[in-house]
C-alpha cells in the first residue's frame, strides 16, 4: 500500500515539475475566469491548440463576456465557429451562455456536479473548469490523459469502453495533486499533447522513461487500446451551385438534427453512386428548382472531393448551373461569405471566388 502511494506521489511531483519547465504560454493559462476557461475547453474538444487558438482569440475579442455571447445571434456564433467542425459544440456553447447569463446571472457553477448540468459540458470539461477556477480536486481525463496513463502504467483496457472510462478516471483521481489540482490537470494534458504524443513521442528525454511500462516492453505504438468503430458510411453528395443572369445564387439552411444543423449549403442532391454529367443532368431535370428554367450544367471539380467525418465519408461534386433566372428568392453572390457554412462549402466558395 505504501509503495503504491509513494509511486503515485512521485509520478505527480515529476509531472508538475516537468510542466513548470515546459508549459506553453497560452492565453487561457493567464486567467481563472470561468467564462474564458469554459470557452477554451469547449473549443479544444476534438481540436488541437494550434488550430483552436485563433478561434479562442476571435471569440474573446467579439464576445468578451458571457453576456455578450448570450446576446449574439446563433448564426453569428456559427459563422465565427466555421472551420472547427463538430458544430453541435457551437450550438451548445451559445445555449449555455444564454442560460448562464439569464438564469445564473452570469455566474458559472462553482463545482463539478453543477457544471455537469450545463448543456455541452461533460465530465472532462466540468473537471477542468472546477479544478482551474475553483480548485476542486476533480481529475480531467481526455485523449492526452488516456495516452499518458495507459503507456506509463501499461493499461490495455480499451479507452472507449465503459470499463476503461471508469478505470482511467479512478486512476487519474488517485494521481491528482490534492493541493494543486489545477496545476496537475494542466500538466498531464500538456504532457500528453507535447511530450507523450500519439506518434513519435519524445521517449529519450522523457522524465518517466525508466518506469514507463509501454516503453520498456516496446508497446508505445499499441497503447492506448481503442475498440474499432463501425466502418464509415460512404455517401455521394452533389451540390447545385446556381448562378443566375442577375448574379444570384441559392443557399439553403439545414434544418432538423444531423450534420451541419443550422448551417447553410447549396441545394443538395444525394445519389447512390457517382454520376457523370449526362446522367446527372437527366437525374435532376425534374427538380422543382429547375422547372421551366433553361440551364447549362458543368462540373466544377474534376476529381471527387472526399470529405471525411467521424461516421461518414462524403464523396462530393459541385455542379455549376448557369440559369436565366431563379425559381426561388436567391442571394447576391457578393453576400455569400456572410453565411455560416460547413468547411466543405466554405473551401469551395473561396476556390470558386464568387464576385
Automatic annotation (TrEMBL):
<keyword id="KW-0234">DNA repair</keyword>
<keyword id="KW-0004">4Fe-4S</keyword>
<dbReference type="InterPro" id="IPR011257">
    <property type="entry name" value="DNA_glycosylase"/>
</dbReference>
<dbReference type="InterPro" id="IPR000445">
    <property type="entry name" value="HhH_motif"/>
</dbReference>
<dbReference type="InterPro" id="IPR015797">
    <property type="entry name" value="NUDIX_hydrolase-like_dom_sf"/>
</dbReference>
<dbReference type="InterPro" id="IPR029119">
    <property type="entry name" value="MutY_C"/>
</dbReference>
<keyword id="KW-0326">Glycosidase</keyword>
<dbReference type="InterPro" id="IPR003265">
    <property type="entry name" value="HhH-GPD_domain"/>
</dbReference>
<dbReference type="InterPro" id="IPR023170">
    <property type="entry name" value="HhH_base_excis_C"/>
</dbReference>
<keyword id="KW-0227">DNA damage</keyword>
<keyword id="KW-0408">Iron</keyword>
<keyword id="KW-0411">Iron-sulfur</keyword>
<comment type="function">
    <text>Adenine glycosylase active on G-A mispairs. MutY also corrects error-prone DNA synthesis past GO lesions which are due to the oxidatively damaged form of guanine: 7,8-dihydro-8-oxoguanine (8-oxo-dGTP).</text>
</comment>
<comment type="similarity">
    <text>Belongs to the Nth/MutY family.</text>
</comment>
<keyword id="KW-0378">Hydrolase</keyword>
<dbReference type="Pfam" id="PF14815">
    <property type="entry name" value="NUDIX_4"/>
</dbReference>
<protein>
    <recommendedName>
        <fullName>Adenine DNA glycosylase</fullName>
        <ecNumber>3.2.2.31</ecNumber>
    </recommendedName>
</protein>
<feature type="domain" description="HhH-GPD">
    <location>
        <begin position="43"/>
        <end position="194"/>
    </location>
</feature>
<dbReference type="InterPro" id="IPR044298">
    <property type="entry name" value="MIG/MutY"/>
</dbReference>
<dbReference type="InterPro" id="IPR005760">
    <property type="entry name" value="A/G_AdeGlyc_MutY"/>
</dbReference>
<keyword id="KW-0479">Metal-binding</keyword>
<dbReference type="Pfam" id="PF00633">
    <property type="entry name" value="HHH"/>
</dbReference>
<dbReference type="Pfam" id="PF00730">
    <property type="entry name" value="HhH-GPD"/>
</dbReference>
